Amino acid sequence: MVVESVVDDEADRIFHALADATRRDIVVRVVQQEQSVSTLAAGYAMSFAAVQKHVAVLERAALVVKERRGREQIVHGNLETVRRATRLLQRYEELWRYRVQNISSILSEDREEDREEDREKENE
Predict the structure, then answer these.
(1) Among 48, 75, 70, 58, residue whose Cα is nearest residue 17
(2) H helices of 33-78, where?
(3) 2: pLDDT confidence band, cut at 50, 70 and 90?
(4) CA-CA distance, 84 to 72, in Å (whole number)?
């Protein structure tokens, strides 16, 4: 089963970026409203440079886009990449639901076979 048209390297970058709580929070904040890196940095108990590094990881994963406006770097959320990650996770969910359904079906068949064997033994 093909899971999605997201290539492995891209999926690795996206989910690596989203593995960190600060980066997930940054994505949420900039999807809701674009913000400068300075404004983002003010919201965290870490250095400006540390926030810049988090933004760089998100940018490499294409989860955010930075644009320079004068002296500020404005960060926007990239909804298309977020949607692609969502679709990928939905495909995995479908795959696992399908597998669970198959396992349930196999277990049900085994139980029915066991019942039939028990009936045959009772009739002997």
Answers:
(1) 58
(2) 37-42, 48-60
(3) very low
(4) 29
